[in-house]
Amino acid sequence: MTGFASVPEGFRSGFACFVGRPNAGKSTLTNALIGQKIAITSSRPQTTRHAIRGIVHRPDAQLVVVDTPGLHKPRTLLGSRLNDVVRETWAEVDVIGFCVPADQPVGRGDEFIVNELRSVAHRTPVLGVVTKTDKARPEQIAERLTQLSALMEFAEVVPCSAVNGFQVDVLADLLVARLPEGPPLYPDGELTDEPEETLVAELIREAALEGVRDELPHSIAVVIEEMAPREGRHPKAEPMLNIMANIYVERSSQKGIVIGKGGERLRQVGGDSRRQIEALLGTKVFLDLHVKIAKDWQRDPRQLRKLGF
Ligand SMILES: Nc1nc2c(ncn2[C@@H]2O[C@H](COP(=O)(O)OP(=O)(O)OP(=O)(O)O)[C@@H](O)[C@H]2O)c(=O)[nH]1
Ligand SMILES: [Mg+2]
Fold first, then answer.
1. Which residue CA neighbors atom 12 of ligand 1 most closely?
2. Alpha carbon 126 to chain centroid, angstroms
């Protein structure tokens, strides 16, 4: 087997997933463990919409981290689909990290999740993870650890910060310790198995989420319509990738907000996401964004299917 030839004795490999209420910091922590941005993040709740796999490569182990949507009381069909993704994911992994932010009290949302987690905790170890420790005072972190430990019996409890890196390596060690022995599951160096188109669509959605409020973040979906080398370039010019994407919203009033006065917001979203996409793909990009209405798509099974849910 090429690539996997020299697996050391005792090498571990397997899957871990992060679960927790929306905005707990799961995606940011996933990116910190991987060492590269593979999942988009935002201060708006329910940013993540599918299970995203990132791969940590170590000399002693390969850890596949699965980031999941925030588990919540669903109000739309999309919401319940997202919750289904979480439940399917935690049923399949070797270890679960349940995340609560250090800067907010443990509450009903966390109890709701833990009540469900109990049904898998007898066969899958669950670690309690206190996130965002850089945002909290030591006594707040201590209080959170106590509240967390009162929720259920965790295999381990660990505070960490994805932003300043505090104990991210400790968390990685604790997750790896729960993996079975076995050869790597992904080729060396592969950081995610997300298709490029998905990563690109997500970067556009992340830029579109910036600065929008209330219901609008939930209403935004992005679909890549075309991604191909730009034709008709001068032979000596740098190659360029043509990307055409639709940003979907649910109502015409939302369309106006996303486009902004004289198209200003949309230009900003285009510029911000283009820079990120160019960094990701390592090529110049021509980005063509269109805003479209998919009426009430979050509640419509047919439209959800078209949007990939
Ligand atoms: N200061 C600080 N902020 C953090 C940390 N981790 C996450 N955040 C911020 O918290 C917000 C939510 O982070 P996400 O990683 O998107 O949270 P999430 O749990 O993935 O959220 P959903 O996908 O909606 O479930 C963002 O504004 C992050 O920048 C941290 O360790 N420190
Ligand atoms: Mg997320």
1. 23
2. 19
Q: What is the mean pLDDT of each run of 10 residues along the chain (309 residues)?
A: 70 98 97 96 94 97 98 95 96 98 97 95 97 98 98 97 98 98 96 96 97 93 96 89 98 96 97 97 96 97 94
Which amino acid belongs to residue 76? T
CATH number belonging to domain 196-306: 3.30.300.20
Burial pattern 48-80, b for ≥16 Cβ within 10 A else e, equals bbbbbbbbbbeeebbbbbbbbbbbbeeebbbbe
SS3 237: coil
How far, in Å, CA of 175 to CA of 154, rounded? 13
Fold (topology level) of 12-176: Rossmann fold (3.40.50)
Q: Is the pTM of this model over 0.90?
A: yes
Structure tokens at 280: 């990701």
Mutate to test the pocket of ligand 1, among 17, 41, 85, 134 (most ligand atoms within 8 A of CB): 41
* CB 135 less than 6 A from any atom of ligand 1: yes
List every span in the chain annotated with CATH 3.40.50.300.
12-176
